[in-house]
């Protein structure tokens, strides 16, 4: 659907960009914008359970400060006065960072994580914290502390994980943009499931400081990124810009890196399958629609095969899952029965390729192979700078389908091959909606060259100009 006209719609339906402009030129106030979103939260969050903590008084106080800054002619950041949510696995000073775990309900953060601090510096008003699966591990956003988040399109379908609460909040109009993070699809899949656009930046582009007092394994350091979810491309671009900036707590940040010019910048590869799982007819049509939109925008689109992505997908299950094995006893003890069952399925998938006890040599050679795959993909993308592919090979999974047995775990893993391949390689990717099928959203994913987020966002704008946006939606 078309973007709503700000002058005829309630403020919770405005884009973040329109809110920021209206606040800056004093057409509206931040307090009015925040109040409208809080009213929307009060109306729909009891149904969806997307935000597990709502900080109404704190948000209104921040909005008043934002309005005072406007009145005094102070410098304004890109999200000045705009309501935003923070994912409940990320530190926000004075608020519990629970990660959806009962035992962590009282883990109150004493500092802001790098991403939270960046959003504050950009002027964002933090209105609440979005739900996650326990330990942010499943494709379903459910936990024993806060309960289940529903997809605003269909309560029987997952809103995705692990940024499922963020996606449901944005899609239903609670906030125009939300913070997320992604180690294996946690920005891109919820965006896809809820009809949003989401950006997984290049590893190292946006600062990440994790959780205060915790040491993270190498895979989490190299595969996980922070990033935004939004209803439209302009807001995604704005939120990404707001999250830029160096932070000394990130040992691997490379925020100033830029790509060399592509040899054929208007050439795009279309990857329908890598031999793991073929897209359903609905997803295949989404790929066709995206290809047609890009051709209409002046790009050359051609079907290509990139089998190294299948190898990267399998390799993720060695490097990430073996490191999680070290903390699995703690996750089993604290995460609840659903998480234990889901993890059993994930380890069954990993064992199909790597056995039940991979060796230290397997692990070491896995990282060596990862470097080779990164180099090969970078070489391919010098002449083919963008690859369009499925986010998932099927539309949003049914709630708790991952708990029905190892065969279903294998099927879901195959459908999500791109969700694991891309984090392992560290390249940026954009999820973009293309329309609906059977009452559910559908979309595509665009893979870009490292540090070419600007190019990805430009392609997202081309897709949106021709295919439109899908949200906010009425809660169903």
From TrEMBL:
GO molecular function, one term: catalytic activity
Residue span, Amidase domain: 32-457
Record Pfam families: Amidase (PF01425)
InterPro entries: Amidase (IPR000120), Amidase_CS (IPR020556), Amidase_dom (IPR023631), AS_sf (IPR036928)
NCBIfam families: PRK07487.1 (NF005687)
Family statement drawn from the similarity comment of this UniProt entry: Belongs to the amidase family.
Name by which UniProt lists this protein: Amidase
Source organism: Klenkia soli
